Structure to design on (237 residues):
């Protein structure tokens, strides 16, 4: 074969191969560019996640205050104010219950303390045991009724302050032993400046029997006279 023809054929073949390689490179470059554009378009078109609006009903405090809008801040403030009001109401009610319990049960001025002290005196007095019967423990209760739960009713009592500033407490209740029933009447007083109540009288009345006085300040002239001289007051039953 002619060497010149061989050289020309070889040159054409190499040129043809080089052209095909450039075409392939350009083809793959175009494909990669299209993929990149598709990826960027996909990312740019993805929706940005959003949170639910904060309201009074669904606010749980997870969203920071600085991230809240004005209406959402109003909603959170309203919710917190409502919760604070509930807490304060509970505290006031608890304090009121504690005060009522103290005044009615534990304070020396309470009816419960006065009643329990009088009942202890009644139960320990031999004359009362003889009048009512001492086969079993003497019971004390309010006004008699056909309802067996009536003994849990409040005991009738009255408290007042006279013109000289002396406090008076009066109460009556029923006492029942194994054989008879009677009525207990008491009257205690507390002069200005005193912290303890003093008996003016404590008496038991049983039908058909003379009145039994467990305390009777009017029947103690010496004691009453010294107290009257000190306070400058005169007591009358």
């Amino acid at each position: 074969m002619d060497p010149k023809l061989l050289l020309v054929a070889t040159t054409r073949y190499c040129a043809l191969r080089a052209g095909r390689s450039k075409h392939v490179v350009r083809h793959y470059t175009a494909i990669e560019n299209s993929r990149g554009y598709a990826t960027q378009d996909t990312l740019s078109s993805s929706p940005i996640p959003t949170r639910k609006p904060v309201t009074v009903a669904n606010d749980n405090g997870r969203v920071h205050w600085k991230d809240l809008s004005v209406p959402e801040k109003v909603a959170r403030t309203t919710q917190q104010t409502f919760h604070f009001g509930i807490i304060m109401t509970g505290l006031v009610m608890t304090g009121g219950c504690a005060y009522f319990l103290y005044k009615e049960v534990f304070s020396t001025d309470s009816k419960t303390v006065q009643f329990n002290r009088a009942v202890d005196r009644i139960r320990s007095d031999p004359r009362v045991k003889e009048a009512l019967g001492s086969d079993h423990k003497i019971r004390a209760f309010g006004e008699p009724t056909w309802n067996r739960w009536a003994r849990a009713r409040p005991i009738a009592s009255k408290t007042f302050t006279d013109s000289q500033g002396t406090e008076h407490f009066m109460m009556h209740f029923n006492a029942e032993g194994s054989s008879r029933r009677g009525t207990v009447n008491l009257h205690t007083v507390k002069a200005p400046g005193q912290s303890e109540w003093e008996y003016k009288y404590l008496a038991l009345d049983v039908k058909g029997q003379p009145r039994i006085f467990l305390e009777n300040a009017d029947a103690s002239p010496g004691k009453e006279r010294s107290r009257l001289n000190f306070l400058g007051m005169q007591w009358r039953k």
Summary: The helical segments are 3-45, 70-106, 111-124, 126-132, 221-231. The radius of gyration is 50 Å. Residues 3 and 9 are 10 Å apart (CA to CA). Residues 224-237 have pLDDT under 50 and may be disordered.
